[in-house]
Specification:
Adenosine deaminase; A/AMP_deam_AS; EC 3.5.4.4; 13% strand; metal-binding; 8-stranded parallel sheet; 374 residues; TIM Barrel; hydrolase activity, acting on carbon-nitrogen (but not peptide) bonds, in cyclic amidines
Amino acid sequence: MPPLPRIRGPEFPAQPVLTTAPATPPNRRELRLLPKAHLHLHFTGAMRPQTLVDMALEQEIRLPAHLLDVDPLKVPADGRGWFRFQRSYDAARHLVRSEESMRRIVREAAEDEAAEGSVRLEIQVDPTSYAPWVGGITPALEIVLDEAKLASARTGVEVVVIVAASRMRHPLDARTLARLAARYAGDGPGEVVGFGLSNDERMGQTSAFSAAFGIARRAGLAALPHGGELLGPESVREVVTSLNPHRLGHGVRTSEDLELLDRLIEAGIAFEVCPTSNVHLGVYQDFGSVPLPLLMGRGATIALGADDPLLFHSRLLEQYANAREVFALSDRQLADLARQSIAASLASQSSKRRWYARIEEWVSSEAPGADFNV
């Protein structure tokens, strides 16, 4: 990507604070107090909008308009899509050029999760993108892991890392990343718990990445590839057959083949559902078109995710709030979604039991001004 034009002293529009809690409707429990796990969050996409502006100012780089006035929902559905998203993500990633900027992203992501009531964050990173600025892919990953451990201690949120290969690169690069991930495999804060495959799922041949996933699996890492968002059931079949996923990043298009969906549910494959992302990428017209109720009704294990809050201006808490409003979910149903996110996480059983107990406390608490909402 060519360098962005340099500027001095620009005036940027005010940037939103994405952790501002949505209003709690009358007689409902506060979602911020509901313990939940965030399992689908990309590294650069986790950046705060104000941090993006700060980095641009520090480097005297002019940001493209589509990064400063981001509201894809004002763009007609047929004008949304992957190209618009990818050019924005690349422009943001271009600003992450130092150890401090990488640490800041992890630190602030953990703080934001804590502010929204998350107890677990599994953040996904491809260290290749940041390697040129910090001395290679190994230092890049170590920076993220080190800050994840520090942020966990500081915020109380368990922050672990998923190393993700890109479909846009050669499968041999994925093998290199899988070997690197294997060196740092573990199950505690600041360790690598899984191996993913991200970027445009229409690119590359899924089966070509199976060797990389084999390396990761032998090291005890969970397989966490994307699939079933930009493409439909046939793509999901290929991902499942070739990569044997523990969870499926997105997976919403599996709803177009109920027999396949039921097979995945029976196999125990969880779905990382990111409704706002689906809408902003033009997969669905609006939040109400996302097949969340169908997945819930079939018995799928679902972990709501925000994907890339920097670009979509919507974090995890808002996914729960929108699901409550759009699909008329009860507090009990929302608690069950939070419970499923923890079940789908790669946290220890002791941590899960502790968080389940806190969810039960939330469920048992009295909703302001009314009996329990069912």
